[in-house]
Please model this.
Amino acid sequence: MTKAKKSGQGPSQQGGGVDPQDLAIQESLGLIKHKLLVMSGKGGVGKSSVSANLAVALSKKGAQVGLMDVDLHGPDIPRMLGLKGLLGISADNRMVPKQYSNNLKVVSIESLAQDQDEAVIWRGPLKMHVIRQFISDVHWERLDYLIIDSPPGTGDEPLSIAQTIPGAKAIIVTTPQEISLADIRKSISFCRTVKMPIVGLIENMSGFLCPHCG
Model:
């Protein structure tokens, strides 16, 4: 028995082949021009709102847009866009995204659950598997933009995106408070560590003046 067989590797790895899912991911990503990861080191800064508004704005300009919600524990995108029901299945057994408009389609873990109020209690490896499936097993077709809404922090989900989607670029969302800016510095450090270019930093909720104290 060879060492590879003892370790449980399949024939494709032993023979130097490529995992079928990796091939499906490469094929799917090859049809997408721009991949943008919307991230933040802190929750509550409006990251999902920025993702949804950016996707809708680009689609209204005529671009073909996909919006992928990888906030697996708190998926908000379907409710923000008024999307209900489960994802469909295509003739080739791939998931069909929910259609928001002719130019915008959406995938979220909430669209795979029968009970939308049930908690998702998953560890890191399962999260990465689901995120890979969102790319390999979804019928995205040709897109000008894939907007990816990630949960706060620099954990499993953004790391899975960095490892799975070469060429992804980051849009970082913050608010003016110093505590938020401190967390954003961690997001910038994360992007530099995984060599993900940062294309923009959005300071959200920065234009409000209190009518009482100014």
In short: The chain has one domain: 28-203. The first strand starts at residue 32 and ends at 39. Residues 1-15 have pLDDT under 50 and may be disordered.
